[in-house]
Design brief:
alpha/beta; Rossmann fold; six-stranded mixed beta sheet; 7 helices; 6 strands; about 35% helix
């Protein structure tokens, strides 16, 4: 059974704006820009006849999807697509000491040390396991048009898995606030129609 699945990152928060790490431990809300992004996304895609909306357990994804949910579309919440836990970096403004730790972590993942994590944080293996679980779940659903709202790193992981790539390829996956990946799920493969499309945000650039 063919499914069309949209994967979108949540709208902007003040943490995004101020380059403060959120991860799964900071449950922030959308700022005014994020609310506008969400509204424009809804305006562009409200006629897609989604029969299921899936969000993470964090507020910023649910707020991004609020206008779709107001239509009465079935809504499921799952922590399987929560953002990665960035450990002691969460709630901290991104600076040089964090950059060094982040680059060391990415180097470890690229060299297949998927158990590596930031202090008190989540490993790539843990993130991959829950993303794989979520993608397996999508196969079981009867709904054919599904809208998924998640987070930057998690979206990178999902796209990497759908493309059957090595974890090092996560860094090449682009993810803007409310950027959307549109996929077809048929047979044994995900086919990509759009990748990180932000066409709905053009009016904000004027």
């Amino acid at each position: 059974m063919k499914k069309t699945i949209f994967f979108v990152r949540h709208g902007q928060t003040d943490y995004n704006l101020n380059k403060i790490i959120q991860g799964s431990g900071v449950d922030s809300s959308l700022n005014k820009t994020g609310q506008r992004q969400a509204a424009l996304f809804f305006k562009k895609y409200k006629k897609e006849d989604f029969d299921l909306v899936i969000t993470s357990a964090l507020k910023r994804t649910q707020e991004t999807m609020s206008q779709f949910l107001a239509l009465g579309i079935t809504h499921e919440i799952t922590p399987d697509i929560n953002e990665i836990n960035w450990g002691i970096h969460e709630g901290q403004k991104y600076d040089d000491w964090m950059k060094k730790g982040y680059e060391k972590l990415l180097g470890a993942w690229s060299n297949d040390d998927l158990e590596a994590s930031l202090e008190k944080g989540e490993s790539a293996k843990s993130l991959i396991n829950r993303c794989e679980k979520f993608l397996d779940y999508l196969w079981t659903l009867e709904q054919k048009r599904i809208l998924v709202c998640t987070h930057g790193r998690t979206l990178r992981c999902l796209v990497m898995l759908m493309k059957e790539q090595h974890p090092r390829e996560m860094e090449k996956v682009e993810h803007a606030n409310t950027g959307v990946y549109v996929t077809y799920l048929e047979g044994e493969k995900f086919e990509f129609l759009k990748e990180n499309s932000t066409a709905h945000l053009e009016s904000m650039k004027k």
